[in-house]
Amino acid sequence: MEQASNLETFERTMMPHFNAAFNLARWLTRNQQDAEDIVQESYLRAYRFFDGFKGGDGKGWLMAVVRNTFLTWASHAKGESQTVAFDEAVHDRGREEASVETRLVGDAAVGSLRDCVQALQTEYREVLVMRELEDMSYREIAEATAIPLGTVMSRLSRARKLLASCVQARAQGAIR
Amino acid sequence: MKCPAAKELIEAYVDGELDATQKSEVRGHLEGCISCAETHWHLVEMRTNFRKEAPYYEAPSHLRDRVSRSLRNEARRNAPRRAIQWKWIGVAASILLAVSTAWNVQMFRSRPAASERIAGEIVSSHVRSLVGDHLLDVPSTDQHTVKPWFNGKIDFSPTVKDLASQGYPLIGGRLEYIAERPVAVLVYQHRKHVINLFTWPQASGSGRKELQRRGYNLIEWTQAGMTNWAVSDLNLADLRDFVSWAAQM
Q: What's the pLDDT tens digit per position in B45-72?
């Protein structure tokens, strides 16, 4: 009985953030299947640790669980080298696309921002996604990433600079 | 508002994180400053492009079903297990009670020294100060701002030194209750580490003591009728160095 009502409260609080959880997982893993597994695992973990939830909107808390699940998954299943290998894959794909893009400059502009975000390191990618796509406040991002507010600001700022220079570099490459 | 200050705030402005006053100051500055207006424009443009070109990945509906199902399974699986756990918790509790009774009897014979209790309170206060928003009541690197701030809040005037040139800049102060009395806390920084320096009048002990509690280093010393405790996650050698500067007359 108690279990059922507990599950009900959990679903009422956490299911509204289902898309947000998936979107973050999808950007973190850069892969549909892995994102689905991460979300599934995150919700189970969140449910098990729901006693630790201190109330409120729940988005920041849930995002922290998704992020931690991702980090555990990335370090266990794939090992540290995976991130680098993955980044190279993204870069390579970018290069291939660039040759096609010389013909289709308009398309090049569309693909490049997404590819640039994908190519960013996790710590920069996650704050950008939380801020720009999830509309999370600095405080919520700080909660989700377990970093101080000041660090959120500086990391976001650095992420934007990296993104801007990547997009600019791609645009120049595409025109040439 | 001057240009460097405005530049610092433009991102927070675009992110909607400024209060009304700061917002209108930045807006005012943007009207007159081409360079800042350009920075602002780039940020807005990037946001627009981001939302246009970086996809928001919606969760597929089959995933929603899958997660709901596994949550239900998890809830069902836990229900009987919890029931069993309660029985064991009962057993554990009675053992604990027996042990703690024995321990309490023991404790009556040898109560922990006052300084041991204080060390515990100080570590708790230090840890609390790092997790919440309660590190600083008065954020200031100026000793002449921090010292007068304590006036009227406590019945003594702490010695406030800025040790920036020694590598330990003062970042502010706050008020705490330790050993059932208000005490002054001066907050210093060394690289990424925070040092809390607790100080209050009471020259009970003498000399100097070093302790380690829950992974934090503590140094206690008395000087000029004041009891001082420095606590940090810094290594002991650095904390000793800090104390040697703080204790210098």
A: 999 999 888 889 999 999 999 999 999 9
CA angle B38, A128, B8 (to 5 degrees): 40
Instruction: Select from B212, B216, B218, B215 the least CA-distant residue to B240.
Output: B218
Of A7, A18, A27, the CB nearest to B64: A18
Contacting residues of B for A142, CB less than 8 Å apart: none
ipTM over 0.85: no
Count of beta carbons in the 10 Å neighbourhood of residue B233: 16
Nearest-Cα residue of chain B relative to residue A111: B53
Closest residue in chain B to residue A147, using alpha carbons only: B131
How far is it, in rounded angstroms, from Cα A106 to Cα A104?
A: 5
Please enumerate, as own/partner, the contacts of B32-37 that have beta carbons within 8 Å and a separation of 24 or more.
B33/B3, B33/B6, B35/B3, B36/B3, B36/B6, B36/B7, B36/B10
Cα of first residue to Cα of last residue in chain A, in angstroms, is: 67
